[in-house]
From TrEMBL:
It holds the Pfam family SnoaL_4. InterPro entries: NTF2-like_dom_sf (IPR032710), SnoaL-like (IPR037401). Residues 13-132 form the SnoaL-like domain. It comes from the Bacteria. This is Nuclear transport factor 2 family protein.
Length: 154
């Protein structure tokens, strides 16, 4: 006999937000992608790209990604092992990430972990991401793909 656990609706709603984040980014659906973010976001990609932690508006973030991601022939952000902790109207989540980027002869892939902080937006009946951190574990391929993707959009 198999035991079926009753899923927690908040846990599933947060996971749905995170999987949609990856899917909308890969499919360049930036209008839907922006709905997944709070008006202001803390973005930390310093482990991968150096620099500083950014405090950025949702609009500016989506504009950056809309200028960058279509420069690749294909991207695939594969989330797995998603872990969620909900505390009233806030949630913390972690997910393993394998992000693959293809452009011509160049391929770049990073493996690591995303950390998310989310807030429940009651009047919209959904969760929004207000902090996103990428922890890099490893990478393979050629970062030239990133350089070329940026150039292709100029």
């Amino acid at each position: 006999m198999q035991t079926i656990l009753t899923p927690n609706i908040d846990d599933i709603a947060v996971k749905q937000c995170l999987f949609s984040f990856a899917n909308y980014a890969d499919n360049h659906d930036f209008s839907l992608l922006q709905e997944l973010f709070s008006e202001h976001i803390v973005l930390d990609y310093t482990a991968t790209f150096g620099g500083e932690i950014q405090k950025i508006s949702r609009q500016a973030l989506i504009e950056q990604w809309a200028d960058f991601l279509p420069g690749f022939e294909l991207t695939w952000h594969h989330l797995s092992k998603v872990r969620v902790t909900v505390n009233d109207d806030t949630a913390n989540a972690e997910a393993d990430i394998i992000a693959s980027h293809f452009l011509g002869p160049h391929f770049w892939q990073l493996c690591g972990r995303y950390q998310f902080k989310l807030t429940r937006v009651k009047n919209l009946n959904r969760w929004q991401i207000n902090e996103l951190t990428l922890h890099l574990d490893s990478e393979q391929g050629d970062r030239q793909a990133i350089i070329d993707a940026n150039k292709s959009r100029l």
